[in-house]
Amino acid sequence: MSEPGSTLLFRELPPHLKFSNEEKRTLRAFARTAAACVINRRAFTCVISDDKELRQLNQAFLGHDYATDVLSFPNGEAGDDLGEIIISAERAEMQAAEFGHDRLDEIQILMLHGLLHLSGMDHEQDRGEMARAENKWREELGLPVTLISRTQDRKSVV
Questions:
Q1: In which band, very low, low, confident or very high, does the pLDDT at 74 lie, cut at 50, 70 and 90?
Q2: What is the dihedral of CA 119, 63, 52, 155, to 10 degrees?
Q3: Cβ-contact 88, 55 below 8 angstroms
Q4: pTM
């Protein structure tokens, strides 16, 4: 468990995807920092899981039959608890290799992205507001290129 403001949970993962105690401490510290900075100390839960669970949730809630890297489930009620983020450790591992950084950085990028969604932002409809916020927080938190920036870079190449 983390201090108030964030809870980070780890599902059972295959041996090659398991996190060491040090990695878990690093991610919990990031969750506390992100909760303090990005969402003004509001509570959230982040679950690190696998492609199978992300695929099932993506299908059930969005009708997409594929695994995705991160899903956000806003609470929808007034209060301190913003909701839940689920991250695929498998997707994070692959994306980290693709973009040349480690998987902890990738999970932090995905957590930041999810937190911005929990706070009400939607990059598909907000004319760049979420992308600007993601870049601002990426710089402040010392993270590599963020999810929206990578997606925009891919679209401009095509």
A1: very high
A2: -70
A3: no
A4: 0.86
